[in-house]
Amino acid sequence: MSKRCKLDPGSGTNAVQNKAGRVNDQEPPETGPGSITYLPLPNKSPNDQKEYCVIKLANGLTALLISDVPNLIDLEEEGELDDDEGSETGSENSGSDEESDVSDEELGSQKGCKSGREEKMAACALCIGVGSFSDPDDIPGLAHFLEHMVFMGSEKYPKENEFDAFIKRKGGSDNASTECEYTTFYFECHDQHLHRGMDMFSQFFISPLMKRDAMTREREAIESEFQMSLPSDTYRKQQLICGTAHPDNPARKFMWGNLITLRDNVTDDYLHESVHKFWEGYYSAHHMKLAVQARLPLKTLEKWVVECFSSVPSNNLPTAVYKPMEETFQNKLFNRIYIVESVKDICELEISWIMPSVMDMYKSKPADYISWIIGHEGKGSLISYLRKHLWALDITAGHGDDGCMYNSIYTMFSATIVLTESGYSNLELVLEAVFSYIKMLQITGPEERIFNEIRCIEDTKFKYSEESPPVDYVEMMSENMHFFPPSDYITGGELYFEYKPEEIEMLLGYMTPSRANIIVSSKKASKEHVLDQIEPWFKTRYTTKEISQELLSKLEEVLPFKDFFLPEPNLFIPSDFSLLPFANPTAKYPEIIKSTDLVEIFYKQDTKFKLPFAYICCNIITDLPHQSVTNCVLQDLFIVIIKQLLVEEVYPASMAQLDYNLSASEKGLMIVVNGFNEKLNLLLEKILYYIVNFNNNVNKGLFHAMKKVLSRQYINSSLKPGFLAREIRMKLLLKTCCSTTERYNALSKVNLDELMAFSQKCYKNVFVQCLIQGNISKEQSLSVCDNLLTTLGCEPLEKSKMPEIRVHELPRGEHCCRVKSFNLEDTNCITVNYYQMGLGQIKEYCLLEMLIMLMEEPIFDTLRTQEQLGYDVSCTLRDTFGVLGFSVTVVSQINKHSVDHVEQRITNFLENFSVNLKSMPLEDYQEVVTSLVKLKLCGDVYLKEEVKRNWDEIKSREYIFDRSEREVSYISGINLEDIDEFLKDQIGLKEDSNFRKLTVQVVGHDHSIKENEVNDTESDIYVDLITESPEKPSNYFIKDIYSFNKNLVLYPPKKIE
Fold this sequence. Notes:
The protein is an alpha+beta fold. The protein folds into four domains: about 20-75 and about 120-315, CATH 3.30.830.10; about 330-465 and about 500-555, CATH 3.30.830.10; about 590-800, CATH 3.30.830.10; about 810-945 and about 955-1050, CATH 3.30.830.10. It has 34 helices and 32 strands. The strands form six sheets. The chain has an eight-stranded mixed β-sheet, with helices on both faces. Strand 16 (about 535) and strand 17 (about 540-545) form a beta hairpin. One of its GO terms (cellular component) is cytoplasm. GO terms for molecular function: endopeptidase activity; metal ion binding; metallopeptidase activity. One of its GO terms (biological process) is proteolysis. Keywords: Hydrolase, Metal-binding, Metalloprotease, Protease, Zinc.
C-alpha cells in the first residue's frame, strides 16, 4: 500500500520552531483579487474530469476546490437554498449499527436503484496539523477530547450539536477523527445546503463555545469510546509497544483519553481552561487545510470558502517540527521478545524495526518497495515457504497509515505473520526463515525491474481508478495537503516517481536481528508463560525477555535459503484497456440473456463509467449445506481450504488489480471476480480448477491446519458482542439458521473423508445465478458462463429442493433473550430492541425508511449525547428476507448502566418520540421527505455500487432494478399521520396493536466483580442465557431458544414488490 508523507508536522512538547514554515510551493503562486493567493494546480489522472483550484486565504488557510464539472447544477433551478435557522440538536457523528449486524441476509436500506435524474452529495473536510502528539503531559487525550468538544455549539450557532442536526435533517452525515499529528473533520450534504453547512462548520474553528456542562457529558463519550476499544488486540499491542518509546518521544503518550485522564486526574476548571488554551494555540488557520467538492463552479466554491473561512483566527506562530532523536525507542526495552496474551483466539508473530521517518521520500517510496516484496505471496516468497511447512497462514508487511507507526519522527516497519500451532511450536525456525529472506534482499539489493513493475501497476491503477465518494475524497485530500506540495496533492500518495536504490538499501540496513522487536501474541500465553507484567492502560498481560545471544547469533549468521527468490514478472498485468463500442440502444438495466432450469444469466454493458473493468458474479445454489449443521461446517471448511490453495496462484492477479471473493451465500456458494476485464476469465478459471480438483490438492496436514483456522474464526466472531447479538436475533427469527456456536461445536467432529465426499457431491445438482456487468460483451458473458457450467459438470437442482429461507412471526407482546458475553475481558453490552412489522411491500418499506430518517438524529442526541447511555446509538430498518421491522441498538458499559436501564430508556424514547411526532411542523416533515427523495436519486459513484444493487435484486429473485424510482413515487404519498399511526402500532401504544418486540442483550463482564470463569476455547461453547432480573417478570425472558421457536408461526416466503 502506498503511504502518505507529511511535510509540515504539527507541534508538540518536544518541538523546536521552524522559521522556514511549511514546504515551499514548487511554482511561484499567483495573486488573485482581494486577499487570495492561487497556488499550483494538482496533477490528476487523464480520466479525472473534475476541475481543481488551490487557494490560500489571508489568514493562511489553504483550500482545495473541486468542481464536478460533468455534473454541474444550477442552484437557482434547484430552488432549495437554505435560509432557515435549523434548531434541532444532534451529535458529533452518525450512530452506526452494531458491528457485523447488517449482512447480505438483510439488505435493509442498501436496496434501491438510483436512477432518474442523478443526485450527488457535496462534501467538505478540514484537516488541522495537530494531533495527539501535542497532548500536554498532564492531560493525556486532550486533542481527542477537543475534537469532540467543538461540535458542542458556537457563538453564532449556540445550540448544542446544531450543526449535526442540520446535516442529518438534510440527509447528510458528519464525523471527525484524531491522529497523532493531525485532526480531520468532514461532512457531506446536498449541494443546495453546502453553503449553510460550510458556514456552520467553520464556526468550529472561529468561535466554539465548549461549555463546562457539555464538557462533563462529552468526556463520558470519550470513556465509552475507550471502553469499546479495550477488546481490540491491535490497540492493545500498539499501546504496549509505544510504551517502550523514549521518554521524550510523544508516541509514548496515552492518546485515547478516558475518565482517569479527563476527570479523576484533573479538575474541571483546569480541564476547561486547558481545552480552550489548546484550541487557541493549535486551531490556527495557517495550520488548516480545507477540501470541498460539489457540482458547482469553482468561482462559487471560492466565494463560499472566502465567506465562511476568512474569519478563522490565525496566531501566525511558526510551524513546529520534532527535533531528531538519537534513540526514538529505548533499545533496552524495544529490542526484546514480548509474549502477550491476546483477547481473540489468535497466534501471531510480529517483528518490528525502527527506521528514520520516510515522509520526505514519497517520490521513491522505499519502505513501500520493501513492503511489497516481503509481503509478496507468490512463488519463492517468504510466506510460500512458511505455508509449505504448515507454519504460517498469512503475512502483512509495512508501516501502515497509523500515526504511531508512520510519522515525522520515525517509521516503524513491521512484518506480521499469522502462525499455525506448528509454527508457534517452531518459532525459532520461523524467525530463521524471516531473517534468511531479509538477508537475501540485503545481498541481492534493490531490483529496478521490480520497482518498474510496481510503478506500472500503480500508474495503471491511478489512470483507471474509479471515482471515490465525495466525502471520502475530500477527507483524503485535506490530509494529503499536509503531506505533499500542491502539485502532488492527488498523486503524491499513489505514484512512484523515481527509483532510488540507495534509500532502499539504507532501510534494509536497519532490518537486523539486533534491532528487532519481537512480539508473540497468543490466547494460550498464560498457560505456557508466567505473565508477570500488565500494561497500565489496556491492562494487557504480558512478559518479556532478552533475545538470547545464541538465538541472536543464529539469526545474524543465517544465509538465504535456496527456496527464496525475488518475485517473477507478473503475467496478469493488463495491456489492453480498450472500451467496447456501445450497443444501440444501450440497456438501462440488466437483461436476461439465458434462462434454463440450470442457469439464469443477466448481462449489462457499462456505458456510464467508461473504464476497462468488469464484474462476474455467480451464485451456485445447492440444498446440501442447509440440510445440517455439519454440512454448513463442511462448506465453510471447503471454502477456507480453497482460498489457501489459491493464494500462491492468484496473488499476482491481486497485485494487478484483479480481485475475487469466494464465500458461502444464504443458499450456496458465491463466486465474484472483478477488475480489469482483459484477463478476468483467467482468474475465474483458476478458482474453478481448485473447486473441481479439490480432492487432488488437499491433504491431512492442510486439512487439520485449516480446521484450526476455521475454529479460530468461529471463536473470534462469537467474542464480538455485536456479532453475537445478531446471531441470536437471527436464530430466533429464522427457521433454518446454523449459528456460529453450533458450527464451532460441530467442527471438531468432521474428518477429511467427510469433506472429500462433500466436495464431490455438493455442487453436482445446482441452480446458478449469474450477473456479468462492465466492459464485456454479451458473447463473452455467455462463453464465461458456459465454461463455468462445463467445468463444474453440474445438473439442474430439482425445484422442490430449492432452499427457501423462512422467517418466524414473533408472538404479540415483548420477549427478551439475554446472554452473557463470551469475552470475559469485555465490559461492553449490546441492547437491541427489534420491532417486527411483518410482510410488506415497497410502500411499507418506504414508510419505515421515513420513520428511521425522522428518528435517527433525535435518538442519537437523546440516548447518546444527553443521557450518555453509550458511545454507539443507532436505529436501523430491518428487511429480513421480506419481513420488515426496525431496531434500536445501544452499546453501553456494564459498569455504567444496567441493560435493564438501557432497554427502558429506549422504550421511553420511542414513546416520547411518538408524542412529539404529532407536533412536528409540516415544513420540517416535508424537508425530510425531500432529503430522502434526493438520497434515492443519488447517482452511483463507481461501478461496484451499481453492480451490488443489481446483484442484490438477482440473488433475492425480485428483479426490481428500478426500485428507487418506485420508492420515490411512494415516499411523496406518505404523510406524518401515517408514520405516527404506524409507530404507535409497532410499539404497543394502540389497542389491539401489532406489538411484536424482541429484545436481544449481550451482557459484558464487570471487572470489579470476581468471576470464577475462564475463556475456554478447547471445548464446546454454548450461549449462557440469563433468565431473571429483579426489574422484570419471569415470563419476560426466553429461557430456551429452541423451545421458544418450536411453536412459532412461519411467514410464507414473500418478496417485497
